[in-house]
Amino acid sequence: EASVFVQDAAAPRRPEAERQAALRDPGFGRVFTDHMATLRYTPDRGWHDGRIEAAAPLSLHPAAMALQYAQLVFEGMKAYGLPDGGAALFRPAENARRMQRSAARMGIEPVPEALFLEGVRSLVRADRDWIPRQEGASLYLRPFLMGTDPSFAVRPGRDYMFCVIASPAAPIFGSTTKPLTLWISDTLTRAAPGGTGAAKCAGSYGASLQAVAEAGREGCDQAIFLDAVERRWIEELGGMNIMFVFADGSLRTPPLGGTILPGVTRDSLLILARDMGLTVREEPYAIDQWQEDARSGRLTEAFACGTAAVVAPVGQVRGRRHEFAIGGGQAGQVTERLRTALIEIQRGRAPDPHGWVDRL
Ligand code: COI
């Protein structure tokens, strides 16, 4: 059956040497592939004009809703190389559905799940030779959806564009598992009850940048956000979730309550942890309690997790009122077991009991 996304066979491809160099040392979100998928929506025509075309600057009216009022939602997902030379996505329907929920929160016309998946798959097929094959690297996919009609009216837009771009990538903190140092952001928050924290909208990430910059000035790798009401409960980092491991063999992560991004990696790790026999708690965790538990040894490990970050151990935490190390600043065993279990499934090297691997 013909794809909704018609490929432009004349789209230029970059020279082989340039692609090989990018694949050897991709970094994160630095180099982009040859193509992009695009699809348009207008109220009279619905979704139409699907294309796989040359990845190139977009032409947007300067008053486009996405530019004026940040009417834009996005996803992060990856295509992984498999041992037999094939490639697979990981739980892509979760991303499709989350984008629909994010779209609803931002007054955006949702992309039907089948079209989302077809756009992503068509792009990965067109850019198959941009999937890095070395350990740790994959093809990061960035589907996004935005309001394109020009308007200063503060009401939902009318016309939309769905676009998927791709970028060969190593994990965001690099392929080593050197523990992170986190900075507690106690003055800036990223999400409030009733706000957009659970939506993967551009604004949630824009709102985290000042804290991330502050963390960098403090010599830390990432910021950790507390809840906006009591400034006490740990929520997430600037673009990834957080989990805690205790000496009694239990694992804890903040519950999804509207202010936390429902990560696909988060959900997958909770399932894998239960499979391993760990007691899993989705319960609030207070910043002071974390410090106390880390110092007493009741808490033994903590790690950041997300599609871009994969699983990254936390070794140090600092803030204006806190300073403590976790597990002597070393990466922990449970973190490492979970990280390996996830990666082995994603790369097709371990059985896939939950049916997460979506071969292309
Ligand atoms: C991801 O983990 O895919 C994210 O979206 C985090 C960040 C790069 C925005």
TrEMBL record:
The record's section on PANTHER family has: BRANCHED-CHAIN-AMINO-ACID AMINOTRANSFERASE, SUBGROUP IIII AMINOTRANSFERASE
On whether Glycosyltransferase is a keyword of this UniProt record, the answer is: no
Q: Which reaction does it catalyse?
A: L-isoleucine + 2-oxoglutarate = (S)-3-methyl-2-oxopentanoate + L-glutamate; L-leucine + 2-oxoglutarate = 4-methyl-2-oxopentanoate + L-glutamate; L-valine + 2-oxoglutarate = 3-methyl-2-oxobutanoate + L-glutamate
The residues that cross the membrane are: none
Annotated region (Disordered) at 1-20
What organism, scientifically named, is this protein from? Answer: Belnapia mucosa
Name the coiled-coil region(s).
none
Q: What is this protein called?
A: Probable branched-chain-amino-acid aminotransferase
A GO MF annotation of the entry reads: branched-chain-amino-acid transaminase activity
